[in-house]
Amino acid sequence: MRCPFCESDDIKVLETRESEDNKTRRRRECLRCAKRFTTEEQVINATMFVQKKDGRREEFSREKLLKGVLIATGKRPIPHEKIIHLIEDTEARLRELKISEVPSKRIGQEVIKRLKKLDKIAYIRFASVYKELDVDDLEKELDKLRGKEQ
Ligand SMILES: [Zn+2]
């Protein structure tokens, strides 16, 4: 990234904003000429494949991922926009890996990490489906939840 005015590459980011159309806008300032400008970033929707547990591969589908997360978050008091954000964040992270074939397990782990922060019950539901928790961990998590309810 170079300053469009003086071509210096000494640039500071002043502000970062996510827009609704999934673009990231950054307000920048050139540290040499002090001029300010804005850049825009967006995810390039190159095809990403998912490597399934049985070895098959299929095209990554945001809709499919959303469906799985919606099942796990069913009837939980989570705003829909938070779920959408979780999906987008997960997809962006996976694309950052820059591998053409992402193991489904990895996708599960990324979702689990985010669900854990969002909602414990949804997290356990999702994690148990992905078998990321062994039975002991699951019991522990459930006990903790039961403790809270009492
Ligand atoms: Zn400059």
Textual characterization of the structure:
- By secondary structure, this protein is α+β, with helices and mostly antiparallel strands.
- 46% of the residues lie in helices and 21% in strands.
- It folds into 2 domains: 11-42; 49-149.
- Strand 2 and strand 3 form a beta hairpin.
- The model has no long low-confidence stretch (mean pLDDT 86).
- The structure holds zinc ion.
- Zinc ion (ZN) is lined by residues 3, 5-6, 8, 30, 32-33, 35.
Key features of this structure:
alpha+beta; 150 residues; 6 strands; three-stranded mixed beta sheet
Helix/strand order, N-terminal first: EEEEEHHEHHH
Overall shape? elongated
- Separate helix tally: 5
Bound molecules: zinc ion
The secondary-structure class comes to: alpha+beta
Which sequence of strands runs across the widest sheet? Answer: 1-2-3
Radius of gyration: 20 Å
Number of strands: 6
Strand content: 15-25%
Helical percentage? 40-55%
- CA distance, first residue to last residue: 56 Å
Q: How would you characterize the largest beta sheet?
A: 3 strands, antiparallel
Kindly report the oligomeric state of this protein.
single chain
What number is the mean pLDDT?
Answer: 86
Low-pLDDT segments, ≥5 res = none
Count of discrete structural domains: 2
